[in-house]
Design the sequence.
């Protein structure tokens, strides 16, 4: 079912909180020249390289750079104003810094900067049932839209009802004051977003819905008139990591194959993520090493699919991984991404195993496998890549498009700038914007929604 991508209901006039905004001093030179070229504003981390493009497990570009490149590849001619958010020593974004940078963006717009749309690919995820317990309300993925205004106002004046279920969930019953402080910080981000979404200019803000799964939501999606974007694969199937609730505005693709673009001499010039046959990320921006996918593809399946002896080695490998996790205090995901498979796994990393069989043999691996089970029937030894079997060869096709792929880029954080870019592109052509809309995000699928 396809539905309109933008909410028409203006909630800004429902505001109960009187807010006075002050602008920092800023020179007029920071306002870009005004012309007919569309302008996007992206608020994100530009400093840290965190996205692996070419599939070698070495980060190539920053999150903001990837968002910018994808938006420009979708629109064509697009200027991007990058609002760079600093990170702390743990490479995470502090809420106060996020609010500060969104306010800087709002200041620019107030000063007359032309902006067609804004993307914020940052989330603060919380379980819907937990926020319900803290508010002493029954809140779920279907009825959350009915509680949105109440939840938003609560963030500005949190009064925590510590039920036993909430105490068990947060595992820190003595931290009520700290929780209150965190929620008040969140309210500052909400207030900053609303400086843009509730201004007379009606500039849409596209916000990532969060990557913690269906039971969670992004606290920032409580801002009035914000467009909350979930993730699908290429074919519109809900991504397993995506939030899915009635706060969602729409869904856009959030799993992307990374396809090499070669010149006539068969030399890689860059990588296509949007399936347009054009370069999204040029090769010079990547590390240039061999993709780990190449160890599994374009080979007879008989040499790659595991046999009985391989399962014995897999058990030993998993035991080593469990030891590493305990010694280093890390989780399954970090083991798979950050450790050299040759060191963890000896020769075993060149074999794949049927996902259904691994799920039965090692139930503790189900969380990791559930994130990739829709991408293929076979999984590598560290449960980080899933492959399909086609014509007796393994194929890596995580987004389901059928395009050749050496890697995968994923997250609602990339669905949001893509939704923004499609909005801008269609706006310039006077075309109504639409995207995938389904599951809990389709309000008609929830009995509690009238």
Sequence:
């Amino acid at each position: 079912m396809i539905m309109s991508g933008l909410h028409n209901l203006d909630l800004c006039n429902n505001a109960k909180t009187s807010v006075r905004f002050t602008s920092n001093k800023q020179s007029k030179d920071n306002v870009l020249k005004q012309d007919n070229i569309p302008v996007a504003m992206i608020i994100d981390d530009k400093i840290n390289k965190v996205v692996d493009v070419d599939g070698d497990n070495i980060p190539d570009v920053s999150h903001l750079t990837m968002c910018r490149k994808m938006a420009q590849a979708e629109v064509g001619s697009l200027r991007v104003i990058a609002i760079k958010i600093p990170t702390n020593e743990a490479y995470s974004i502090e809420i106060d810094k996020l609010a500060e940078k969104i306010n800087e963006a709002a200041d620019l717009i107030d000063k007359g900067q032309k902006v067609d749309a804004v993307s914020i690919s940052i989330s603060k995820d919380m379980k819907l049932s937990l926020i319900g317990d803290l508010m002493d309300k029954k809140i779920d993925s279907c009825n959350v839209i009915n509680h949105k205004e109440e939840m938003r106002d609560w963030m500005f004046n949190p009064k925590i009802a510590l039920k036993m279920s909430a105490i068990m969930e947060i595992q820190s019953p003595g931290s009520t004051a700290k929780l209150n402080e965190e929620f008040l910080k969140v309210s500052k981000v909400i207030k900053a977003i609303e400086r843009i979404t509730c201004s007379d200019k009606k500039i849409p803000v596209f916000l990532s819905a969060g990557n913690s799964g269906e039971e969670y939501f992004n606290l920032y999606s409580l801002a009035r008139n914000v467009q909350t974007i979930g993730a699908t694969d290429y074919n519109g199937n809900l991504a397993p990591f995506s939030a899915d609730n009635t706060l969602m505005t729409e869904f856009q693709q959030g799993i992307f194959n990374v396809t090499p673009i070669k010149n006539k001499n068969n030399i890689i010039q860059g990588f296509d993520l949007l399936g347009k046959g054009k370069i999204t990320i040029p090769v010079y921006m990547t590390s240039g090493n061999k993709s780990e996918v190449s160890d599994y593809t374009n080979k007879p399946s008989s040499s790659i699919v595991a046999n009985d002896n391989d399962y014995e080695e897999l058990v030993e490998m998993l035991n080593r991984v469990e030891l590493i996790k305990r010694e280093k205090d890390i989780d399954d995901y970090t083991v798979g991404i950050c450790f050299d498979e040759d060191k963890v796994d000896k020769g075993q990393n060149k074999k794949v195993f049927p996902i259904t069989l691994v799920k039965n043999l090692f139930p503790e691996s189900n969380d990791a496998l559930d994130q990739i089970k829709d991408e293929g029937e076979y999984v590598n030894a560290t449960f980080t890549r899933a492959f399909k079997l086609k014509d007796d060869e393994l194929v890596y096709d995580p987004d389901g498009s059928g395009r050749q792929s050496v890697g995968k880029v994923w997250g609602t954080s990339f669905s949001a700038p893509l939704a923004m870019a499609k909005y801008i592109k269609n706006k310039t052509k006077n075309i109504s914007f639409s995207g995938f809309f389904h599951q809990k995000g389709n309000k008609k699928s929830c009995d509690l929604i009238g």
About this structure: The radius of gyration is 23 Å.
